[in-house]
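Look at one such:
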Amino acid sequence: MKKLEEYVRSIPDFPEKGIIFRDVTSVLQDADGLQLAINSMQDLVKDLEFDVVVGPESRGFIFGTPIAYNLHKPFVLIRKKGKLPCETVSIEYDLEYGSAVIEMHKDSIKPGQKVLIVDDLIATGGTTEAMIKLIESLGGEVVGVVVLMELAGLKGRERIKDYRLDAAIVYPGK
């Protein structure tokens, strides 16, 4: 069987020169790759106790939902502003160029719930940090973050250093 890294397509000079883009779609398009990705991420958190899985739009949905399903846990969505129909809480955070707003339903996390965040990637850590603040604003306790890929050269781990972070694949560069 292939290693998980072998399913990830690396595209040089995208979106700009000097960047190596790690394409998750090549993992998703292969049944063995997808299964290996989900199983690998789930294995990384097998020792964690948590009540709910949270995933951000859109690739956090892809990886978080099957983990929640397999472990018989609820799954909570974090979405871009204006996409959720009920009362929400939101947070604005800075991106490399500009800012973004994410939100979740106000009743999606109960005070004291232990939360696992699942996403495809951590780079600079800005989105992950914003998700943690959003969950904590509702009284949730983030007990871990698990991602398919970590771009270690962008130092996202340092930004969330007070939280457990597990990555199925760690790339040293950008």
Notes: The radius of gyration is 16 Å. The helical segments are 25-28, 31-44, 59-70, 126-137, 156-159. The domain at 48-171 is CATH 3.40.50.2020 (Rossmann fold).
